[in-house]
């Protein structure tokens, strides 16, 4: 199977912005094992700004654009260093790809991106993709790697996109406020009722939230790609997703 895995800042880092070492090590171990099993994987990774916040010892996520971009520049180096070190331990080579919205919107640049991705996967490398936060002010404002992951998945012909977040999936209500909220196991259509279940942004270090995940699901489903929202606190969930069991929400792509 060809799949795209997107990991959010809340999964990669503690609330302090410092790297969650144990979790990232486990994540890289599981992804490496899935690659060893023959799956083709691309990783869309948030966390550059969040890790930059920790590396620069800032008290919170910056609000002004220059500081956001500075944090992204510092954090991206740290992020790729960690991925390179950990995946190399399992004999997997990582490749960094930083893109902006223009790289996808422009047909020629999109074609180059897709061709590069295809060749990297053929060569057995693990592409690690992020927004080019140091220069792309539009994307950095949106902070929407969920949508980026959906665009990557649909462009490279992935069968599944997995969004690892700090929640088990889509609930019938906000589980932090309503103890009777029920996890939705399968969603077959994005309608106003599903959109109404999406709230605002997630963690203080990240800028995503359920709303961006629902938007990503719509992109995937319309292109026939399945999408899963799962809790990234235990990377072993990836095994369960591949086996079709566990706690997560599956958004079923429209099959032709």
TrEMBL record:
InterPro entries recorded: AceGlu_kinase-like_sf, Asp/Glu/Uridylate_kinase, G5K_ProB, Glu/AcGlu_kinase, Glu_5kinase, Glu_5kinase/COase_Synthase, Glutamate_5-kinase_CS
Major site of localization recorded for this protein: cytoplasm
The protein's annotated pathway: Amino-acid biosynthesis; L-proline biosynthesis; L-glutamate 5-semialdehyde from L-glutamate: step 1/2
Gene3D superfamilies: Acetylglutamate kinase-like
GO CC entries: cytosol
Keywords: Amino-acid biosynthesis, ATP-binding, Cytoplasm, Kinase, Nucleotide-binding, Proline biosynthesis, Transferase
This enzyme's EC code(s): 2.7.2.11
TM region(s), chain numbering: none
Ranges of residues in domain Aspartate/glutamate/uridylate kinase: 1-231
Residues engaged in binding substrate: 46, 133, 145
GO molecular function, one term: glutamate 5-kinase activity
One BP term from GO: L-proline biosynthetic process
Superkingdom field: Bacteria
Keyword Metal-binding: no
Binding site for ATP: 6, 165-166, 207-213
Subcellular location: Cytoplasm
Pfam families for the chain: AA_kinase
Record's catalysed reaction(s): L-glutamate + ATP = L-glutamyl 5-phosphate + ADP
Function: Catalyzes the transfer of a phosphate group to glutamate to form L-glutamate 5-phosphate.
Sequence similarity: Belongs to the glutamate 5-kinase family.
PANTHER family xrefs: GLUTAMATE 5-KINASE, ISOPENTENYL PHOSPHATE KINASE
Name of the protein described by the UniProt record: Glutamate 5-kinase
Organism: Candidatus Coproplasma avicola
């Amino acid at each position: 199977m060809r799949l795209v895995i997107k990991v959010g800042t809340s999964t990669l880092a503690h609330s302090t912005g410092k790297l969650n070492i144990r979790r990232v090590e486990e994540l890289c171990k599981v992804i490496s094992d899935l690659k060893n099993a023959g799956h083709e994987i691309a990783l869309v990774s948030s966390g550059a700004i969040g890790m930059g916040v920790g590396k620069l010892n800032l008290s919170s996520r910056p609000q002004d654009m220059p500081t956001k971009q500075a944090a992204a520049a510092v954090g991206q180096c740290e992020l790729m260093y960690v991925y390179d070190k950990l995946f190399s331990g399992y004999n997997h080579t990582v490749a960094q790809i930083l893109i902006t919205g223009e790289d996808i919107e422009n047909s020629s640049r999109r074609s180059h991106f897709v061709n590069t991705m295809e060749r990297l996967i053929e060569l057995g490398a693990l592409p690690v993709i992020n927004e080019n936060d140091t220069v792309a002010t539009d994307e950095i404002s949106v902070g929407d790697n969920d949508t980026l992951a959906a665009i990557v998945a649909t462009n490279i012909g992935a069968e599944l996109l997995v969004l690892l977040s700090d929640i088990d999936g889509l609930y019938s209500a906000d589980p932090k406020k309503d103890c009777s909220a029920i996890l939705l196991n399968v969603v077959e259509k994005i309608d106003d009722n599903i959109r109404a279940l999406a709230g605002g942004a997630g963690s203080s270090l990240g800028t995503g939230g359920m709303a961006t995940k629902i938007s990503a699901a719509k992109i995937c489903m319309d292109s026939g790609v399945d999408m899963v929202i799962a809790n990234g606190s235990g990377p072993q969930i990836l095994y369960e997703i591949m086996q079709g069991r566990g706690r997560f929400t599956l958004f079923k792509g429209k099959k032709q």
